[in-house]
Write a structure and sequence with these properties.
With 142 residues, the protein is of the alpha+beta class. The protein has 5 helices and 4 strands; from the N terminus they run H-H-E-H-E-E-H-E-H. The protein folds into 2 domains: 51 residues, no CATH class; 79 residues, Alpha-Beta Plaits. The protein has a 4-stranded antiparallel sheet with strand order 2-3-1-4. A hairpin with a 2-residue loop joins strand 2 and strand 3. Helix 3 packs antiparallel against helix 4. It is globular, with a radius of gyration of 16 Å.
Length: 142
């Protein structure tokens, strides 16, 4: 069975919901792996480079206005997060930004940072999504 990205994404979100506060990147990856193994009858083993990182992918978009980058980067800085890469684009009235952010030095868990970034998004009237890099790696490996 070759799972589609949408199927893996659905399984990943289900695992996060079931694990709740225990939804560490390792626990989610393991839950998704087990579910895929049960459904496919195949065994998935770790490959070199599949190690868990402390990096997340931040995507944001909305109507453009001054202060968006400042608001997002200030919140990340206050959480001791390191921006490793950033791509920003203004398309007409719309603002888009994608970042790779290392959260391993933060005292907060991913879920807490996601909650804080959602609040910043509400204040700035934009959408901000934070997903662990390993979710993307796992989705594209299968």
């Amino acid at each position: 069975m070759k799972a589609s990205e949408e199927e893996i994404r659905k399984i990943t979100f289900e695992a996060i919901e079931v694990l709740g506060a225990n939804a560490s990147p390792e626990a989610v990856k393991e839950a998704v792996r087990k579910k895929l193994e049960v459904e496919s009858g195949e065994t998935f083993t770790a490959k070199p480079g599949d190690t868990t990182s402390g990096r997340v992918i931040l995507t944001s978009f909305g109507l453009n206005k001054p202060g968006i980058v400042a608001g997002v980067t200030k919140a990340l800085s206050e959480n001791n997060c390191d921006i490793q890469d950033l791509s920003q684009k203004i398309m007409g009235d719309f603002f888009t930004m994608i970042m790779i952010v290392d959260i391993s030095a933060s005292q907060k868990e991913l879920k807490e940072i996601q909650t804080e970034m959602a609040k910043i998004g509400e204040e700035l009237k934009i959408k901000i999504y934070l997903q662990h890099e390993d979710v993307f790696r796992f989705m594209h490996r299968i």
